[in-house]
Amino acid sequence: PDKKVKVVYEKPIDFTKIDTNLLPTVIIIGRPNVGKSALYNRLIRRREALVYNTPADHVTRDIREGIAKLGDLRFKVLDSAGLETEAASGSILQRTTSMTANVLARTQFAVFLIDVRAGLHPLDLDVGKWFRKNAPGIKPIVAMNKSESLCDGVGSISDAADEARMLGFGDPIAISAETGLGMAALHDALQPLIEDYMLQVLNRRPNVGKSTLLNTLLQEERVLVGPEVGLTRDSVRTQFQHEGRTIYLVDTAGWLQRTGLEKGPSSLSVMQSRKNLMRAQVVALVLDAEEIVKARRSMTHAEVVIARRAVEEGRGLVVIVNKMDLLKGKRNSTSFDKVMEAVPVEIQTVIPQITGIPVVFTSALEGRGRIAVMRQVIDTYEKWCSRLSTSRLNRWLRKIMSRHSWKDQAAQPKIKYFTQVKARPPTFVAFTNGKTQLSDTDLRFLTKSLKEDFDLGGIPIRIMQRCAP
Ligand code: GDP
Ligand code: GDP
Q1: How far is CA 248 from its chain centroid?
Q2: Residues forming a β-bridge with 385
Q3: What gap in Å lies between CA 133 and CA 276, rounded to an integer?
Q4: Where is the GTPase Der C-terminal KH-domain-like domain (predicted)?
Q5: What's the CA gap between 309 and 307, in Å, rounded?
Q6: Would the CB of 211 count as within 6 Å of ligand 2?
Q7: What ligand 1 atom has the least distance to the C-alpha of 81?
Q8: Residue ranges lining ligand 1, Cβ < 6 Å
Q9: How far is the CA of 41 from the centre of ligand 1 (A)?
Q10: Model ipTM value
Q11: Given ligand 1 and candidates 31, 37, 112, 121, which is best to mutate, with the most ligand atoms within 8 Å of its CB?
């Protein structure tokens, strides 16, 4: 029976299916009366709350822990009301109770609440100091609570935000625990952090063969520098010469391997991997063919998220399916063809943002696929750098407009002219008259046609709309 691999990812991570024990913990901190309990209650929505048995310590109160639901996100949330006396009292700032140490050691992220009506309070600064000292690896998200009370809109929120930045934890968000205002902003601030964390926990496919592949690639090349251990223990950078070009190869080895739940260093390495992603022009994502057959899907959640992020950051993407030699044995003889056939299709479904993603099948062990990998990487890089002249683009625009059969004349987007304003990745501007608003469908149509007609597969393309002068 033809059991074709087919998975459609609605979301990168389905939090409802994750064992709550694996979820990260977010602690709500802040001086008394800023609304910590109110936010806690909103996040858990009367879900079952565990109450710690606190030691007979007169300084602390109970600490509540529950499972928070915020849009599609799930996480454990701690209401630190039990720690606040300690945190907010300058006099005992030097003292760290074992309770505090215990709680903070189990925490990965923090929301630092301030009361926007009161402005920045000296106790807020104390809480900041306390947190920095006791949880140096965590950068809290500063949330200005009670923001619904500032509805005049004449700069008061932005003044408050300027003040909140003085805490030194970056840009604040405005929320109201009582009315629910700003919960989307809180979601957006937490999502990348929690997603990265879950990727580390959920990833079960570490040894795809990146290092072996790297060695295969480098065997034939003139290595200029490296492998040199990068800024962190997780990245290795090698510089080599390929057909007259200098290529920098950054291996983000540690990103996916790390399944441990240590907090400080692991969150640092995630940040470092993101920086590596930002620095690269082309991201080569290596998958393990044997795992694909076993799991009956091309990519794990972690891999999907990396690929999507690469695209969002405007990088070119090449997918490498390694260990193809393992599929050639007797038992698996049909797997080989199936993987070759199904993986490109599936990857395209999972990452619809860019079409024509190149997929290369390799066996690093047998040294196969090296040339194809290099060809695709360079090809993708060149597409990423490509510049199309305005005259060529406008000839093309007229052609696709007449080629396409529009429902009626009115449905046809009225674009006066089209030009490329930037490369790396290719970015275009569609000039229209003042009244026309290009719809998502129009933009999709333009993107798709650009990719097909100019062979721009595997790279993200950006189109903006402007009013013609
Ligand atoms: P905690 O001491 O930090 O846990 O603060 P609470 O959650 O007990 O809240 C302190 C006070 O602020 C209570 O009277 C809440 O009703 C009020 N409060 C909490 N959140 C908001 C909010 O978003 N807007 C307004 N106006 N009041 C709030
Ligand atoms: P990394 O963790 O992604 O860098 O993976 P490694 O390069 O360390 O490889 C993990 C394991 O897979 C090692 O035992 C390699 O020998 C093996 N391996 C790597 N590439 C291939 C391949 O193409 N075919 C087979 N059969 N094994 C491979």
Answers
A1: 23
A2: none
A3: 29
A4: 387-466
A5: 5
A6: yes
A7: 4
A8: 30, 32-38, 81, 145-146, 148-149, 176-178
A9: 11
A10: 0.66
A11: 37
